[in-house]
Structures are given as structure tokens and as C-alpha cells.
Amino acid sequence: MLRQEVAAGSELGKQAKGFMDAGKLVPDDVIVGMVGVRIRQQDAKDAWILDGFPRTLPQAEALDRNLPPSAAVSHVIYFALPEQVLMGRLTGRRTCSKCGAIWHLESKPTKTSGVCDTCGGSTTQRSDDHPDKISKRLEEYRTLTAPLLAFYRSKGLLRELDANRPAAVVNQELLKLMR
Ligand SMILES: [Zn+2]
């Protein structure tokens, strides 16, 4: 979304570009402004989903201020997973460098190790998915993102999903929670 706005040269895109060119993080208000613009577009008229956003309390508060009452957040889904299981899912993940298909060493292995079944490209591990990087992300999650649980719980919006089950079951459960 950020890249699109910058490429389109919109007012928010220009603001964002200024920060990016200066090697700075784009501030929450600019990002949330973009989300606000995006969800007012025609294809988001009936519904929209934010995946992995907001990640901090200030972002969540800015998002609330930015949304019209008719489009306020209605459901927040928390995919609950023990850290050890999460670690296994992330460290085993492999991505095809050619077509972007996602594989997993244990739960979705390729027929030939390191070779994508779909296109024959080579599969690699995202640098983000190395154990030390994951620990850092988890640390960030605990301090910055976990407070969102209480925030959305107090608003009566939080729905907890036990994600430590097969994907098909989680998917079914998720669809129920979104009703
Ligand atoms: Zn591929």
C-alpha cells in the first residue's frame, strides 16, 4: 500500500516518500491515513481485512480516529499459538525465489529439497525467519503488539482462535468467528 501511494504521488505518498528518502520510519499517522483512504475505496465498500496491522497501541488508536463510524473495526481475530510451535512454523518456512510459493520443511515439504514443486525455482529461507531474528520479532511483539489484546478485549471486539490445529480446522473456525 505504501509503495502504491508513493508511486501514485498522492499527498500521503509524498509525505511518506520524504521520510523514506531521509531513511526514517514512516510515522503512524501517515500509514493510518493511507489505510483510511484505501478502505474508503469502492472495492472495500462491503468489508475489508487488515492483516498484521495495527501492530502498536498508537497505531490502533490512530486507526480508530481515522475510521468513519460506519466502517469501524468490528472483529479482531487473535491467532493464539504457543511460542515453541510458532518458532517451528517460522524456522521451517521456505519461499520460492521465482514464483513466491510458500513451503514448509515439515508440514508442506517440496518433493525435492530446495526445489519448488510449482515452478522448479529454488526455495530459500527469508532472513526474517532465522531463529535470532524471530526472537527479536517476538520480543517486539511482547512489548509493542501484545497490549493490543487488552485494548480490543476491553472494546468487546477480540475473538481468540486456537491456531495450534491443522490449517483446514483453523480456516473453518476463522470463518465462523467472522460472522
Ligand atoms: Zn516456485
Short description:
The protein is mainly α.
- Roughly how many Å apart are the termini? 27 Å
Largest β-sheet summary: 3 strands, antiparallel
CATH topology of the largest domain: Rossmann fold
User: How much helix is in the residues?
Assistant: 40-55%
Spatial sequence of strands, sheet with the most strands:
3-2-4
Shape: globular
Task: Return the CATH class of the largest domain.
Answer: Alpha Beta
Domain module tally: 2
- Structure class: mainly alpha
Classify the oligomer: single chain
Model regions low in confidence, pLDDT < 50 over at least 5 residues = none
Number of strands: 5
Order of helices and strands: HHHHEHEEEHHEH
- Radius of gyration equals 19 Å
Beta fraction: 5-15%
- List all distinct small molecules, including ions and cofactors, that are bound in this structure: zinc ion
What is the CATH architecture assignment of the largest domain?
Answer: 3-Layer(aba) Sandwich
What topology does this entry show?
Elements: H1 2-8, H2 11-21, H3 28-39, H4 57-66, E1 76-80, H5 83-91, E2 93-96, E3 102-104, E4 123-124, H6 131-145, H7 147-154, E5 158-162, H8 167-177
Parallel strand pairs: 1-5
Antiparallel strand pairs: 2-3, 2-4
The structure holds zinc ion.
